[in-house]
Amino acid sequence: MPITTHIMRTIGFRSNILFAIAAAIGVIAALGRPWYAPAVAGDENAQMESLLSGIGRAFTESDGRNGWDSFTRADGLIAGLAIATVVLLVLAMLPAIQLHVQALARWTGLAAFGVVLVKFFDEPGANANVEPRYGLLIALLAAGVLVASAMTVAAAPSRRRTEARTYTPPPAPEHVPESSWGPTQY
Predict the structure, then answer these.
(1) How much is the average pLDDT of 30-37?
(2) Opening angle at CA 89, ends 99 and 107, nearest 5
(3) How far apart are CA 35 and CA 168, in angstroms?
(4) Cα–Cα distance between 174 and 164 in angstroms, integer?
(5) Burial class, 150, CB count within 10 angstroms (exposed 0-12 / middle 13-18 / buried 19+)
(6) How far is the C-alpha of 18 from the C-alpha of 23, rounded, in Å?
(7) What is the pLDDT of residues 141-180, one digit of tens each?
(8) What distances in angstroms separate CA 65 from CA 31, 92, 97, 130, 137, one per listed residue?
(9) What gap in Å lies between CA 92 and CA 109, rounded to an integer?
(10) Which of 42, 125, 133, 152 is deepest in the core (most CB within 10 A)?
(11) Element at 37 (helix H, strand E)
């Protein structure tokens, strides 16, 4: 019975760049969706039912302020970091500058995720008066994909092309007289 071996494949260099482009579009599009809404009155007593109903409202309610209206500068920072990450990842396709832009792409992706994560925990205004909505959760997920793709592209080895070496066979061995062949004869 033949033994079949399965080869594990990973997402390639260019595919991760495409994922990063899609994630950056997702982060920017999420800024147009609701990020925050006023907290429901009577839900401040920190019980389990309040937490679960707040999570349910975060995914189902479409009221509230979108990301562009909620911030004064963080919205532009989030969009700028997402775009900068994609531009750097596309530039990483050029072998001459790949090593230089890979680290920058990693850091801008992490910064975009960090800003969205900070805005998840630190809402504008008093935190007790505001609760998150699904736009913030979409942005957090898309920023996570952006970081994962940027990390994978940044960890890729250099793609510099080297000239293929031609094979030169070793010289043929020298011919020796027949008396030296085999074991010693007595």
Answers:
(1) 87
(2) 75
(3) 66
(4) 30
(5) buried
(6) 9
(7) 999 999 999 999 888 887 666 777 888 888 887 776 666 6
(8) 10, 36, 41, 10, 14
(9) 14
(10) 133
(11) strand 34-38
- Structure-block tokens of residue 15: 């595919």
The token pair that represents 50 in the structure block: 């309040």
pLDDT at 27 over 80: yes
Residues comprising the chain, all counted: 186
Structure tokens at 57: 């409202």
**HSE value, Cβ hemisphere, 13 Å, CA-based, for 60:** 6
Percent of the chain with pLDDT over 90: 32
* CB neighbourhood size of 102 (10 A): 20
Residue type, 106: R
Residue 179 DSSP label:
G
- Residue 47 scores a pLDDT above 70: no
- pLDDT tens figures, 103-145: 899 999 999 999 999 988 877 776 667 788 888 889 999 999 9
Question: Burial letters for 167-180: b for 16+ Cβ neighbours within 10 Å, e otherwise?
Answer: eeeeeeeeeeeeee
CA atoms within 13 A on the CB side of 171: 3
